[in-house]
Amino acid sequence: MTKHATEANFDGLVGPTHNYAGLSFGNVASQANEKRLANPKQAALQGLHKMKSLAALGYRQGVLPPHERPSTDLLRTLGFKGDDAYVIREAARMAPELLSAASSASAMWAANAATVSPSGDTADARVHFTPANLAFNLHRSIEHVTTQRLLGAIFHDERHFAVHPALPGTPVLGDEGAANHTRFCGDYDARGVEFFVYGRRVYGGAAAPVKYPARQTLEASQAIARRHGLSDDAVVYAQQRPDVIDAGVFHNDVIAVGNQQVLFCHAHAFVDQASVYEALREKLARTGVTFEAVEVPDSDVTVADAVGSYLFNSQLLARGDGKQVLIVPQECRENTRVAAYLDRLVESGGPIAEYRVFDLRESMRNGGGPACLRLRVALNEAEIDAVAPGVWMNDALYDTLTAWVERHYRDRLGFDDLADPQLLVEVRTALDELTGLLGIGPVYGFQR
Ligand code: SUG
To answer: Nearest Cα to 51, choosing from 442, 405, 423?
Structure first.
């Protein structure tokens, strides 16, 4: 593996409690699959297969461990008392929806773990991380505590990395992390332009969706840019179109993805889309890079097609030859319009020259595609060396983690299983072993 500046992808390893609880209002897949029986083992293996495949193609790939679930801390905060088994049984009996929230494996969607600003962009030339408060959903609002600890363990060298706490968890500062953040650049260690997309502006007003929530506010995005030390000429803000949020685009990464100089997006992604392109073009030009938008017209792929297939929830990755490869979920092959579009796209001679298809069905049924599963961290050589080495994916780690999943994960999980206190015992046994396998030391509350 070469050690030049690169963009590493850290994928969330699916946790042993992966299930379908219908917890996310406005996320149509989550709502449609509520109470379906899940297969955590298969979900984790599907994710590992993607990680290993991208590592084998030469991309730097890391692993973010799952969180401890069910969270008895949350249940205790909500008033349940007694030992862990009693707390879980009482929650199942009195407030099953709270037990579901406390049990979600939603930390797998690492794109929502944090917003990351690479050292090329920040005032102190360190990589800055702000864990997302995910304040809109109870089940996700508890993630940032463990996320901060995990990022602190993996990116522990403070000469290179700054891991901030999450923003206050209030609706004014709703923050969903990198799912609403894209960075454009030339070389990964050079100055880039960070693109923050918000759904709602609290102060000063702006149109907002009427049916579904806008989870990200402009005020949150601006706070992150400030604390990361980004200069005004390296930042562009854009509002997501409220009508597409109402059509099920609950994060910007359901309708747009970018990498280096390329933005791949639907024609209905942003309010005043032409001005958004112009701002990106102008600011990127100051870094010597020519911005390229690949815009998909509604006549080729509708917003409903995009939401159903997750065409834009793809990973756009640089190939060695200046072209890009798109990593798409297999649902894109199953929608005939999207499949035909993809074939035309790679024939068109544009920047996206190839696509590769992955089966991520278990995650997709909760609204999580290839892009949701990964957190991008652009790193220079010295920073690569400063990352905890045990989290880098390679053939040996793939084999180790596959065997670990096979040993510890169930192959079916429904609500009744969440009520079984034995599940927490299994989760703790698995996670305790995992921190050893990844060499990141004790990070979970039960290990302290
Ligand atoms: O926040 N689904 C997640 C999916 C997150 C996808 N991430 C990105 N687009 N980057 C969410 O809505 C569903 C859980 C359940 O219903 O069981 C859930 O949390």
So the answer is: 405
